[in-house]
Every structure is written in C-alpha cells, then in structure tokens.
Amino acid sequence: AIALLCTFAPAMAQEADWTKSKWGPADEIGAANYITPELVVKAAQLVKTGKTYPLGIETNSKTPAFPPRGFKLMVVQPGQAGIEGLGPNKATYNDDIIEGWVGVGSQLDGLGHLGIGHVYYNGNKLADFADPNGLKKLGIEKVPPLVARGVLLDMAAMNNTDVVKEGTAFNRAEIEAAAKKQGVEIRQGDVVLFHTGWTSLIGKDDKRYSAGEPGIGLDGAKYLTDIGVVAVGSDSSALEVMPFETKDLFPVHQHLLAKTGTYILENMNTEQLAKDKAYEFLFVLGQPRVTGAVQAIINPVAIR
Ligand code: UVW
Questions:
Q1: What InterPro entries does this protein's entry cite (predicted)?
Q2: Which residue of 115, 161, 223, 300 has the fewest C-beta atoms within 10 A of its own C-beta?
Q3: Residue 94 in 3-state DSSP?
C-alpha cells in the first residue's frame, strides 16, 4: 500500500529537498515509478496500425560524440585463422568487440550520470557508490522496462523549418503551444520527445551539430517534471539548449537526472514520427542491462 501511495505522489513535491526522493531513501529508479500496469495497458491501446519506428540512429566510428568520447567496432573470427572451419562440419562464425564509450549515438542517461557537486539522485554521494568497474548504485541495469505513452512535439514544424536554429530554447510557453497546436496533452507517466531536425546534420555538418543545439530550457524541464513525465528525449546530442541559457552548465541534466530522477534520451531518431504526424504512440525501451553502467546505447521503439 505504501508503494502504491508513493506511485501516485504528486509530481510537484520533488524539489523541496532534492536529495530526498519522494519514492523513499532506497529508491534508485526515480520517475520510472510513475509507470503502472494500468498506464502500460492504456499506452498499448494507442497501437492502431502496427507501424513501428526505430528511435535509435545508426552508431559507428563516425558518429559525432561529446569529447573525448569515441566508438569503434571490430569484427573477429576467433580460432578460425587459416582453417576452413571448426570441426568436421566446418562451423564458422563472426564475433564482435566494441571498443568505445557508452555515451555515443542514441543513448539513455541513467540517474548516475550527472550530479551536483558529486551528489546524485536521491542524495547519493559519488564517494559512496562510484567504482571503476561499475556504479554500485543507480546503475543502468536497475532501470525497469520503460513502456509508456510517448508524445512527440514537433518543434521544427512549430518553427516552420526543417532544422531548428541552435540556441532556441523550448520552455513552458513553447511546449504548451506545440502541444496545443498538435492537440495532444502531456500526462504523468509519459515519455516526451522533441523533434528539431538536429540529427539530420550528422554526416552533413558535424561541426555545426556539435557546436550547439536547440533544446529544452530549465523552465521547460521544470514544467515537464511538474507534470511527472518518466523521460524526456530529443533528436539532439544533449537534449538541452546550447549555448546554455545562463552561465550554469548542463542545468537541465541536473534538474532531470539529479533533482527529479527523470531519464534523458539523446539522439532520438524522430524524423519519421514527425513526417507521419505521429504525436502519440506506445513507447517501448528495454536497455542493455550492463551492471553498473552509467548510460546505454539504445534503440527504443515507437509503435502506433
Ligand atoms: C553530458 O551531459 C556530459 O553528456 P550527455 O549529453 O551525453 O548526457
């Protein structure tokens, strides 16, 4: 019963003392607590056509990433050099090795990613949970399946452009205006994605892609966490507007991850959803459950 009460705790109560989660001192999953079986059933009812959308972009050594991050894939044939195959039946196989950072391409930021003065979600001090072999708390393996109602806000359409200009902030007024224009409501338990056209720059103008971006501002982040969304994502590398609105660095990351336990989805492939005007859909994410990982390279799926 206590767990049930916590699940329905009003979204607004979070920030009073951000180091104390409203879901209790042991909580490690933050806004994923908003997901209930009832909301999953409701979200599944949004599936009408069976059309599926991969929300991950392709990831490879050329994918621009936040420095010094990089990524390399190696394909190997272990024990097969110079032979036709293994055993009398000549069994052959390819394996692969990733030598790279996890924060490359389409990614989920876990709650252990960004903190405030080395304090992270639910007051966890880095010294108490950091380990070079994997976080002892807030690891990505703890994140339950993120299955929710997805909402797309097409900020490119709102701005009458294919690619929204870098430095354009989406705050409460812009978010409300986009939702109103599209006739969608943002609700507790939703995953909200912003389409800006920014990932279309990858491979065409990587310099511009990495130098700044349109994205949500702090007031927009607060508006969404007051509603009680599970995750916020966009088709840009950091979700939040850059240059930042003030001298503070990554304030939206701090508000979402550290203060309110709200997940961040970066470099989402929102192009086709926007083309189809698919503003509401079933969102499904089962991330790789690497023990103690901070982030995950992901390919969530939108279904409508
Ligand atoms: C940082 O916030 C440092 O990285 P990312 O945008 O990948 O979450």
A1: KFase/CYL (IPR007325), KFase_sf (IPR037175)
A2: 161
A3: coil
State residue 16's pLDDT score.
77
> Cα of 244 to ligand 1 centre, how many Å?
13
Cβ of 250 closer than 6 Å to ligand 1, yes or no, is yes
Q: Number of structural domains, the chain?
A: 2
- Candidates 266, 267, 268, 297: which one to mutate for ligand 1, based on the most atoms within 8 Å of Cβ? 266
Q: Which two tokens stand for residue 235?
A: 């088709």
Q: Is the CB of 114 under 6 A from ligand 1?
A: yes
138, 110 contact by CB (below 8 A): yes
User: Does residue 87 share a domain with residue 172?
Assistant: no
Mean pLDDT by groups of 10 residues along the chain of 304 residues: 43 74 98 98 98 98 96 97 96 97 98 98 97 98 98 98 98 98 98 98 97 98 98 98 98 98 98 98 98 98 98
DSSP state of 164: P
Ligand 1 centre to CA of 263 (Å) is 12
Same domain, 267 and 247: yes
Say if residue 178 is in the same domain as residue 111.
yes
Domain match, 45 and 94 both: no
Residue 297: per-residue pLDDT: 98
Residues 95 and 195 in one domain: no
Can you list the alpha helix ranges (DSSP code H) found in the chain? Answer: 2-7, 37-44, 126-129, 155-158, 172-182, 206-211, 218-227, 251-253, 271-275
- Do 141 and 157 lie in one domain? The reply is yes
177 and 211, same domain (yes or no): yes
Radius of gyration of the chain (CA): 20
3-state secondary structure of 230: coil
Q: Supply the pLDDT for residue 5.
A: 41
Question: Which among 19, 25, 16 has a CA at the least distance from the CA of 6?
Answer: 25
Q: Domain containing 181: what range? A: 2-64+102-303
Which is the closest atom of ligand 1 to the Cα of 253?
A: 2
Q: Are residues 255 and 274 located together in one domain of the fold?
A: yes
- Displacement of CA 224 from its chain's centroid (Å): 14
